[in-house]
Design a protein that fits this description.
By secondary structure, the chain is mainly alpha-helical. The chain folds into 2 domains: 205 residues, MFS general substrate transporter like domains (Growth Hormone, Chain: A); 195 residues, MFS general substrate transporter like domains (Growth Hormone, Chain: A), CATH 1.20.1250.20. The chain has 17 helices and no strands.
Length: 421
């Protein structure tokens, strides 16, 4: 049974107010999710001196995070569909916040590696739990903007993490930069546990008695839309991981910018990505209200956005820094619009009781693509430079759009009745 059951009667007016508070809390958890994972990379030079590891040791720490992240994403999605958003998200945020806090208390590289592995195991649960909460509280016509708002917490964290972490570390030491966000996360978990409730029966967009129960894996794996979404994420997420992990280095190594100069402009593509993602949610919701089915609306936005993706191919040939930044803004915007709308597409296609499971599988494949592509990019950059990388990145969203449209044209098989949470 979902632990988010309402406590006493709730008025429609109270539900309308509560749903936006819930989206605000989900924005905050997504912000903390990205902020906490970026702290290590920002403080990499300091930690190398503190613990005496080299770049290979740093790569091992990153791999510890990514491997548990890939594995846990699918498991977290299923846990959310069993326990509901209230219990599961409280658990996930508490665990990753404790892991982040303990990172600040680490005394050896082994402690550091273990903390990052636990962080990677807990952080992916944020996304299926948030999607299930948004699906529970928001109808089709508002779901695009709702999911876009909370997902924008990721790019917002990417915008401000570097200056905030740098300031805290310089003022109070690097350990504080891990401990403070950990404490904030634990406070967030308390607030979520106290505030989150399921909507009242008269208000709920998906009354529990009117939907199928949680579908078994044997049913989900035969659903064409699942494979379309999974394969599209496997292909398209690689571009976003490039923006997160390789774009700052490209500014410094290829554009010859100093660390300070790169920091002054490196946040711009993420801000543009944030605003574009939110705008795309408004557009797709408008299409729904205009008569399109939710799936048609999301697919139209995704397809049109994919047409801009080849701008990535122009980056190595751009004549100046301003043009490069502009092209990266387009690429980052394409990535966020895709992440936001594919997530909403999951909610439009699958019943509330299974959306977390589906998103969990899709997220695992997306992270797996990012893990493998990062290794391949390192090989290519070291031998032939960035040009072939950008040429490939420019094709990925077009390929993903073709995959989605192919698989979503099939009529889905009915999902059998199962246990409803």
């Amino acid at each position: 049974m979902d632990a988010s059951a309402p406590v006493g009667p709730a008025s429609r007016h109270g539900d309308l107010n509560r749903r936006w508070v819930i989206i605000g809390l989900l924005f905050a958890s997504t912000f903390l999710n990205y902020f906490d994972r970026q702290t290590l990379s920002i403080l990499k030079p300091v930690l190398k001196g503190e613990f005496g590891f080299d770049d290979n040791g740093y790569a091992n720490i990153v791999s510890a995070f990514m491997i548990t992240y890939v594995i846990a994403y699918t498991l977290a999605g299923r846990l959310v569909d069993r326990a509901g958003s209230r219990i599961s998200l409280t658990l996930f945020v508490s665990v990753w916040s404790i892991a982040n806090l303990l990172t600040g208390l680490a005394q050896t590289i082994g402690h550091l590696l273990a903390c990052r592995a636990v962080l990677g195991a807990a952080e992916p649960g944020n996304y299926p739990a948030a999607l299930r909460a948004a699906t529970t509280w928001f109808p089709d016509r508002l779901r695009g903007i709702a999911t876009s708002i909370y997902q924008s917490g990721s790019a917002t964290a990417a915008v401000i993490a570097m200056p905030v972490v740098a300031y805290v570390a310089a003022r109070w030491g690097w350990r504080t930069a891990f401990v403070l966000p950990g404490i904030v996360g634990l406070l967030w978990a308390v607030a979520w546990w106290r505030i989150y409730r399921a909507p009242s029966a008269e208000y709920a967009p998906h009354p529990p008695q009117g939907e199928p129960g949680r579908a078994p894996w044997s049913q989900l794996l035969r659903h064409p839309a699942l494979w379309g979404i999974v394969l599209a994420r496997l292909v398209s997420d690689q571009v976003w991981y490039f923006c997160l992990f390789w774009m700052p280095g490209y500014f410094q190594e290829n554009l010859k910018l100093t660390l300070i100069a790169a920091g002054l402009i490196g946040w711009v593509p993420f801000l543009v990505a944030d605003l574009s993602g939110i705008a795309s949610g408004l557009v797709s919701d408008r299409l729904v209200r205009g008569g399109h089915t939710p799936r048609q609306a999301r697919l139209r936005v995704l397809t049109l956005t994919a047409l801009l993706a080849p701008c990535a191919m122009l980056i190595p040939f751009a004549p100046g820094v301003g043009v490069v930044i502009g092209l990266f803004c387009v690429v980052a915007a394409v990535c966020q619009i895709w992440l936001f709308n594919v997530t909403t597409l999951v909610a439009d296609t699958f019943p509330r009781t299974s959306v977390a499971s589906v998103l969990g599988v899709a997220g695992s494949f997306g992270a797996l693509g990012g893990l493998f592509s990062s290794k391949l990019i390192g090989t290519f950059v070291g031998s032939v430079g960035y040009t072939p990388v950008f040429l490939a990145l420019g094709c990925f969203h077009l390929l993903a759009a073709g995959i989605l449209r192919y698989f979503l044209r099939f009529d889905p098989p009915p999902l059998s009745e199962g246990k409803t949470n």
